[in-house]
Specification:
The complex is a heterodimer. By secondary structure, chain A is α/β, with parallel strands linked by helices. Chain A has a domain of about 130 residues: 3-Layer(aba) Sandwich (Peroxisomal Thiolase, Chain A, domain 1), CATH 3.40.47.10. Chain A contains 12 helices and 11 strands. Chain A has a 9-stranded mixed β-sheet with strand order 3-2-4-7-1-8-11-10-9, sandwiched between helices. Chain A is globular. The N and C termini of chain A lie close together (about 10 Å). In chain B, a hairpin with a 5-residue loop joins β1 and β2. Chain B is globular. Chain B has one domain. In chain B, strands 4-5-6-8-7 form a 5-stranded mixed beta barrel. Chain B has a 3-stranded antiparallel β-sheet with strand order 2-1-3. The two termini of chain B are about 30 Å apart. Chain B has 1 helix and 8 strands; from the N terminus they run αββββββββ. Classes of the chains: A alpha/beta, B mainly beta. Chains A and B meet through α4, α5 and β5 of A and β4, β5 and β6 of B.
Chain lengths: ~400, ~140
């Protein structure tokens, strides 16, 4: 395992509905926390990378604007985008710049103010989130795409609505204790009971997915500061090393997807690369953050990452093995489902959670037993892009 | 005919595969096949992703396949608000040929099953938009 590039600072804004400020102010919140965490000043940061999904931003080319607001000029800055996995891609690029010797300290800021545009505008953009030439003309939306995977998977592997509900109950358990989460209310099984008129999670969105199977939109920002070995040792008492990185892409059109019963190909391809680079296996991972934009996505990720065999992901949630005290804790910060999913900020937020876990600083969400290896699985679009990043102490 | 006529609502005005819409009007659903390497594509492409040739022919899609998966949308994006609920699915014809479309309204929701025999046919909406839909085979 190579220890050449480390995370020396992490930050995240609270994830909220309708952030009362502009995108530069939103980015500042995560950046300030990460800088204080690292104990450095702007002159120590050699370059910056900004990440979001641009269709929500009114500001054209936000990187330069935000770099100035954060006091990071005249250092180089630019923008990286892979929709929901933008900030994981940003970290991959920052890692590469450091490893190449171009810069010694690079900060990656992910941000998204989904409420920057009206909900009608947002609805229209959601419809164009995949193949606009051949699929959007049928009236597609993100939940419908993941529902295609859910339907095929449930028919083949015996996964039930109750299993999907259990994923949401787990994420809600941790959303309640994560003070940065957008959805902090508890969720009970009764909330999924379609016979109960008060059941807020039971309504169909894109069958078989219900309201409770879908993640919460949010405004938020995240910041990850990376450094080379020399600077990491100089600045940080607890550097957390980036030991494995993998990334992959897949056909956008559903007609070109190989098999809907086997999950998202980008997840397992990126995972294979990251495990190989880190020289570890799924069994070595002590805590993970996976891209649970929908409950089905978490089950598919268990299998794609090797935490469970194909078709047996349901057994993990049934046995509560992915809870904090279980064999492989997953999304014990509430995940996208409860913590929220401010698109460009999500990957950085997942990484912050893992870094805090490996430092034993995750508070009420801390996994017991001093976890030494953690994994982040971050997907863009409907498995259009996949990124897996592995961290070690 | 321009590609703005394709689907319930088109987001693309121009494509070199625009003839696809004219063929739908003629009652045919066609993909493209590379003249050089024989790679087949649906939805159609103007350029070959395998050998980078720009010489493509049209071929008619198979008549019968299996419904690989489906979903019923109870909410719709902007511009489709009048339509829900509607069902969309993926048909697998074998030989790496698949098709994504809505399932015809005439097919009762309770009859839609993964693995059922299905086909596809062209469709003209009342407002003149041209599309195709999945039907029982």
């Amino acid at each position: 395992m190579e220890k050449d590039v480390a995370v020396i600072g992490v930050g995240q804004s609270s994830f909220v509905r309708g952030y009362e400020g502009s995108i530069r102010e939103l980015a500042f919140e995560a950046f300030r926390e990460a800088m204080q965490d690292a104990g450095i000043t702007q002159k120590d940061v050699a370059a910056s990378v900004f990440c979001s999904a641009p269709e929500y931003d009114k500001q054209r080319s936000p990187a330069g604007v935000l770099a100035e607001y954060l006091g990071l000029i005249p250092q180089p800055t630019f923008y990286i985008e892979t929709v929901c996995s933008s900030s994981s891609s940003g970290v991959k690029v920052a890692y590469s710049m450091i490893k190449a010797g171009l810069h010694d300290v690079v900060c990656v800021v992910g941000f998204q103010k989904m409420s920057e545009i009206t909900s009608a505008e947002s609805q229209e953009r959601m419809g164009r989130g995949a193949d606009i030439q051949w699929e959007a003309p049928f009236g597609t939306m993100m939940p419908a795409y993941y529902a295609l995977y859910a339907q095929a998977y449930m028919a083949k592997h015996g996964l039930t609505h109750e299993d999907l509900m259990k994923v949401r109950l787990k994420s809600a358990t941790y959303g309640v204790v994560n003070e940065r989460a957008v959805y902090r209310k508890g969720v009970k099984a009764e909330d999924f009971d379609a016979k109960n008129p008060e059941a807020k999670m039971a309504g169909p969105v894109a069958w078989p997915l219900r309201v409770g199977d879908c993640c919460a939109n949010a405004d938020g920002s995240s910041c990850i500061i990376l450094a080379n070995k020399e600077k990491a040792k100089a600045f940080s008492k607890k550097p957390i090393w980036v030991i494995g990185i993998g990334a992959a892409s897949e056909a956008v059109n559903m007609a070109a997807r190989p098999d809907f019963t086997k999950g998202l190909s980008v997840g397992y391809k990126a995972g294979e690369q990251a495990y190989k680079m880190a020289g570890v296996t799924a069994k070595d991972v002590k805590v993970a953050e996976v891209h649970d934009c929908f409950t089905i996505a978490e089950i598919m990720a268990y299998e794609g990452l090797g935490f469970a065999k194909m078709g047996e992901g349901k057994e993990l949630i049934r046995a509560k093995e992915t809870y904090k005290e279980g064999r492989i804790p997953v999304n014990v910060d509430g995940g996208l489902l409860s913590k929220g999913h401010p698109i460009g900020a999500t990957g950085g937020s997942q990484m912050r959670t893992i870094v805090l876990q490996l430092r034993d600083e995750a508070g009420p969400m801390q996994v017991p037993g001093n976890p030494d290896i953690g994994l982040v699985h971050n997907v863009g679009g409907v498995g259009l892009y996949g990124n897996v990043t592995i961290f070690g102490r | 005919m321009g590609f703005e006529k394709f689907g319930r609502k088109s987001f693309t005005a121009m494509t070199k595969t625009g003839k696809f819409v004219d063929m739908l009007v003629e009652g045919k659903i066609e993909g493209t096949v590379c003249k050089k390497c024989g790679a087949k594509f649906f939805p159609p492409r103007a350029d070959c992703a395998s050998c980078l040739s720009k010489e493509m022919d049209w071929f008619e899609m198979p008549k019968k396949g299996k419904l690989e998966t489906f979903t019923t949308a109870y909410y719709a994006p902007f511009g489709f608000e009048a339509d829900p609920p509607y069902t969309m699915g993926v048909v697998d014809f074998g030989g790496n040929l698949k098709l994504f479309a809505r399932v015809a309204k005439e097919v009762k929701l309770e009859d839609v099953k993964v693995g059922m025999d299905v086909g596809a046919r062209p469709l003209k909406y009342d407002d003149g938009q041209i599309s195709f839909e999945i039907v029982k085979a």
